[in-house]
Amino acid sequence: MTSAPSSIRSTAAARAPARASVLSIAALIATAAGACHQEPNKSNKGGETPKPVVSQTAQGVVLDAETVLAQVNDEAITVGAFQARLNTLQPYVRARYTSLEQKKELLDNMVNFEVLAKEAVSRGLDRDPEVVRSMKQMMIQKLMRAELAQALKPEDIAEDEMRAFYDEHRDEYQRPAQVRISAIILSSKSKAAKVAKLASGPEGQTNTGFRKLVTAHSTDDESKLRGGDLRYFEAGTTAVPAPVVKAAFALTQTGEVGGPIAAGDGTHYVIKRTGWRQQVDKSFDEVKVTIQNRLFRDKRRALQKQMVVDLREKATITIDENALADVPIDADSGSGAPSQAGGLGAGGGNASGSKDQPLPTK
Fold this sequence. Notes:
With 362 residues, the protein is an alpha+beta fold. Among the domains are: 16-128, no CATH class; 177-278, Chitinase A, domain 3. Helices cover 48% and strands 12% of the residues. Strands 5-4-7-6 form a four-stranded antiparallel beta sheet. It has a two-stranded antiparallel ribbon with strand order 1-2. The protein is elongated and about 95 Å long.
């Protein structure tokens, strides 16, 4: 394999200290931000920072949201920012911060956060590619959440559309029981009896063993190519001889062998049950919410894609495919940054920043 040019390797090596610096500063900031180990307020489903609510104190003093609690260089920590931080916590965690000492602890952590952030900026880490990429990813997530929340809600899916989907996919919601078997098909009754004994013994106990018996003895070339698999079928099928269908549904356990069975056309079957599907009979009302969520997800993905298409049409984009083709790829390396391919934002997944976000509930 052709190795990467030395200039590229040198650049990657030069970046190593910078990356270590980024990670160390990020770790310190994360430690300061979460020093109290509080859980986020999961009731805040939209992911947005709650608006600060400034209330009257026990002494009757009304605090303005812009009142400065602490000044860190040119960065002010206001009452509003302090309360916004509190409001991201679960109520039972928030209740711990009633005393002055506990409030000072939280404010001290916020001060630490600003001090570390200021130091990171002074070192130019706000321009570091990793930091910039993470910031862009967060912006994309917020943009998509805001756009999709306004454009589509689960309750926007009309009942007529859900009923139409139910009718078009009725086989998913109303289906008789189905059985799946593999078969050794022979033209000789006596030979079928001998093969049935082999299939019922150790040689046919596993699916692999049964397939070997199919290869060795079956005279039906079409099913032999599939290892004898006749796939799933219902009791009313005409694709399989009726006596074989009856015998297949008489088997009570997956892995059970039956036969020999006279098919009525001069052939004899030795069969093995390999699968079973229970009968499904669900009314529209039983699956209405499931269909609503499914259509909601499909429409949301379509909106995401369309939004990207529209933005690309407005943007000026040039791509140098020759240079792209010459980009060296070190496929043997076991290290490196997480993949950024495959998604609308850094880290892959969908444009809202997750592979499958839980659906909002009414």
